[in-house]
Write a structure and sequence with these properties.
The chain is an alpha/beta fold and 452 residues long. Helices cover 19% and strands 21% of the residues. The chain is built from nine helices and 20 strands. Strands 1-14-13-12-15-10-11 form a seven-stranded mixed β-sheet. A hairpin with a 2-residue loop joins β6 and β7. α3 crosses α5 (245-257) and α6 crosses α9 (436-450). Its EC number is 7.2.1.1. Residues 266-314 form the Na(+)-translocating NADH-quinone reductase subunit A C-terminal domain. Belongs to the NqrA family.
Length: 452
Amino acid sequence: MSDNINLKRGLNVPVSGVAERKLSKTIVPDIVAVKPTDFKGLTPKVLVHEGDRILAGSPVLADKANLSILFTSPVSGTVKEIVRGEKRKLLEVRIEADKTVEYVDFGIKDPEKMNAAEIKDALLASGLWPAIVQRPYGIIADPQIVPKAIFISSFNTAPLANEIQFSLKDETENLQAGINALSKLTEGGVHVSFNSKETGENPFRSLKNITEHYFSGPHPAGNVGVQIHHIAPIIKGETVWTVAPHLVAAMGRLFRTGKSDLRRKVAVTGPKASGPSYIETVSGFCMKDLAGLCDDKGGDVRYISGNVLTGANVGKEGFLGFFDDQVTLLAEGNYHEMFGWGKPFRSKKFSFSHTYFSWLTPGRKYAMDTNLNGGVRAFVMSDVYSKVLPMQLYPVYLVKACLAQDIDKMERFGIYEVLPEDLALCEYICPSKIEIQSILEDGISLMMKEMA
């Protein structure tokens, strides 16, 4: 049984630089990084030393809270450096990669003939268990829990997002194997959401063992959190799991080949991308390997692992995040524009509030940069957030409850249902320039601490 949900609230951010559906380059990185900072709430334990020889699939880190949760190398090579920050916080384990990858052999398995415990053991040993995200809070899934259901969004409405019709078009068998494995981990089924207005062949459409749901509307209609809110809202005491589509494919490759293969097609996008297109590489590759795909003439470039709303600014020497299949390249907006707010005829600036006359050309794309166009102002009550949030929540009250560290009100206003990515548009259009995602992240961290 399927349903069709039309979401009218939201905003498609009209930034230029969408990736053309072609594979322009295959990057075999010299250095890759395994980053514990990609995983919320993780306290990592290092399992390797500098100079150690490892294979793709060899354990590099473990979760101190549950040592069975391993984080493995995406490549074979030599551990080059263990990078620490303030108070010796572990930031990265850097690995000097071989030109030809050698894999740990985990053995070919048929998930349809396995039980839940065997599938969990396989995912844990291979380092693919951290691909499963648990809600509330967006943490690594607890292997001891049986979730209410598992949710997957088969489309992404974020700005310039990776299109799985292209990036996963040859992965149908791997996706099916991944779905077969996930379906054994819950009694509530695997729920896959589709874009009802989608053109092109979605590789999830032919899969079995899924419950289909259909959505339409602007971003964030593709956010799995928004979809869960409309399918089966999370209440206190309930747990659901989510998995990104390209990581479902990686799980399928594990069972079909016996290898922890984290290769993926990554969309290189944004106004500063030179010929926006797709590359094939592995998680943790270094951004400096994008030489030739980045237009760095005429100023500094911000390298974002992910999309412009929720991605991380990693810099040219930074690395692609474990969950990301997109890189966005923007010009740094390190300039001051006098009386910018008083120039309504600026046709090259986009304004959600119709401050500029650019709203008269709704189909136009803009070469946006990172300039905030103003500073932080008073946080006043407004209905502006509700215009871009298609959820039955009160975002202003939720954010203020997080600021006040009022756990009762945070629960009342929906802290269990959201992650920072779900309110990213609220931050983008915020007239007060409030860092809503950071505030919500702090609120979630408080909930994890106090409700443990």
